[in-house]
Amino acid sequence: MGCQEEALIQKVCSLYEQISSLESLKPSKDVNMLFTQLVLTCIPPSPIDVTKLCKRVQEIRSKLIKLCGEAEGLLECHFSAILGLYENPLDHLDIFPYYSNYLKLSLLEFNILTQHCTQYVPSKIAFVGSGPLPLTSIVLATNHLTKATFHNYDIDPLANSMAVRLVSSDSDLSKRMFFHTNDIMDVTTALKDYEVVFLAALVGMNKEDKVRAIDHLAKYMAPGALLMLRSAHGARAFLYPVVDACDLRGFEMLSVFHPTDDVINSVVIARKYPMPTRSIEQGLGPIILPNKCSEIQAFNPFNNGNLMEDLAIEEQLS
């Protein structure tokens, strides 16, 4: 491991110690400063492979991801409550400090989605883990999928009530956005209704829970439906869980894109196998070829030429 990676790990561990000693993770000057430092430390592209770190650093990473998730949830609650005070909350979304990131990420996800939805425009979408500030659903519904209905699932009734407040005054979105208070592991037949399912980065904060959620979606989603997930790459894996191709049992991995700008999450898209040859209990779907378990090279979703070459190669391998 090079000097840069060593310095990065030391910096991340130091920030973890400071963050974990905070009395609260609610937005404050100290919380904002420390998490800003952490994000700025992890954003630059890095060759670091978090799976090869020592056990102590692996444990710190797991704890840090949970702290990041908790802080992100509290930040969204804070700003959802502020937005809820406005007569038309959706006119003021830009007060959320990371709103521009959501605009970029949603555009990226829409472009990737349309590359794999060439025969139809999705009309019924589920977002699992939508939270109190469901910006992805709102931005996609407003800017990109303007006729689709969005079914947002969250386990927290307070998060859903806050989210409903944001869209209730909008005559269009209030008719197209629905909120369900459910643990996704309890949702079964309803999942067959969706052409696309988004799985939020913070659903499944560790590998086991993430894979359990993916397995559940593989069991109940409609054959051929698309699954969009958020992952992380390089040092950004200190902030969010990583989804590997081999975690997607029951799905065909279509592509993964690793942003190098201030959009932190990688975007993964996969398709539910049309005809599983095994049950979930037996190991989920057709046997995946070894090459499907290796990392698929990142492609530029704005460059159709490269994408078509990637798809042609994948078709030959399938």
Automatic annotation (TrEMBL):
GO terms for molecular function: nicotianamine synthase activity. It is an enzyme of class 2 (transferase). It catalyses: 3 S-adenosyl-L-methionine = nicotianamine + 3 S-methyl-5'-thioadenosine + 3 H(+). GO terms for biological process: nicotianamine biosynthetic process. Its EC number is 2.5.1.43. Keywords: S-adenosyl-L-methionine, Transferase. Synthesizes nicotianamine, a polyamine which serves as a sensor for the physiological iron status within the plant, and/or might be involved in the transport of iron. Belongs to the nicotianamine synthase (NAS)-like family. This is Nicotianamine synthase. It comes from Morella rubra.
